């Protein structure tokens, strides 16, 4: 009797069900040879290629062995290459996985807070995933539950250790980001800046979700990178 396959732990679901080559109409995709990437394969690409984790760190996050991660990752990379080189639609779905909800919480802000400044690690409209590498922050002015204005502030040259001070000098009350190290978290706490980490996607939508009381964040967000030259990366590891 075959041994049951252990589900892989996934922290972040894909925001899209797939992609098609430019110039193809969606209704034509059924006539093409599609490539299907499973959700657990997508997770290895997100953790290793996007967040920069090692395969050991990825295995710990997904709660599987290193050889298992290697096999999943190699399969995912081949599928990406197949879709790109042969101009095939790439679909994302299925697989053997569970979604980690342990560290997910919903952010709320008190109604008494009539005015506040919210900062987001920012790049091309999205939440930049590495706090320590972030050069631009989008700053939102919120009053009475409404976003009044926003601006882009450049932090280049501030350095990892000085980013909390940079935000404090801007009068920031709240930071929304992806991955962030323990030292930076402590610096933000000392600066009186509330942190909502482990968030990805559209910066504008994240701020609106915070204002609406629906922002989902990771209360145990941590940096998973180690070694010389390290600044900060994103790790949303879930351990039960």
TrEMBL record:
Stretches assigned to the Dinitrogenase iron-molybdenum cofactor biosynthesis domain: 124-210
InterPro entries the record matches: Di-Nase_FeMo-co_biosynth, DiNase_FeMo-co_biosyn_sf, MTH1175_dom, RNA_pol_sigma_r3/r4-like, UPF0251, WH-like_DNA-bd_sf
One of the Pfam families matching this protein, by short name: Nitro_FeMo-Co
Highest taxon, organism lineage: Bacteria
Family designation: Belongs to the UPF0251 family.
HAMAP family xrefs: UPF0251
Protein name according to UniProt: UPF0251 protein D0435_12615
Species this protein is from: Anaerotruncus colihominis
């Amino acid at each position: 009797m075959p041994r049951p396959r252990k589900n892989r732990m996934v922290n972040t679901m894909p925001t899209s069900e797939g992609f098609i080559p430019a110039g193809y109409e969606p209704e034509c995709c059924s006539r093409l040879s599609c490539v299907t990437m499973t959700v657990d394969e997508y997770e290895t690409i997100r953790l290793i290629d996007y967040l920069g984790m090692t395969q050991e760190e990825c295995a710990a996050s997904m709660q599987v062995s290193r050889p298992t991660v290697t096999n999943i990752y190699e399969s995912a990379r081949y599928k990406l290459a197949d879709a790109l080189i042969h101009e095939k639609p790439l679909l994302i779905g299925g697989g053997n996985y569970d979604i980690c909800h342990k560290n997910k919480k919903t952010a709320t802000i008190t109604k008494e807070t009539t005015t506040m400044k919210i900062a987001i690690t920012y790049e091309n409209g999205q939440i930049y995933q590495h706090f320590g590498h972030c050069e631009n922050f989008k700053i939102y002015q919120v009053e009475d539950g409404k976003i009044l204005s926003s601006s882009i502030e450049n932090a280049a040259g501030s350095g990892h250790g000085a980013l909390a001070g940079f935000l404090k000098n801007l009068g920031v009350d709240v930071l929304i980001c992806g991955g962030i190290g323990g030292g930076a978290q402590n610096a933000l706490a000392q600066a009186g800046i509330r942190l909502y980490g482990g968030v990805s996607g559209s910066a504008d939508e994240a701020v609106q979700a915070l204002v609406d009381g629906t922002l989902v964040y990771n209360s145990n967000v941590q940096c998973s990178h180690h070694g010389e030259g390290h600044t900060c990366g994103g790790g949303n590891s879930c351990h039960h």
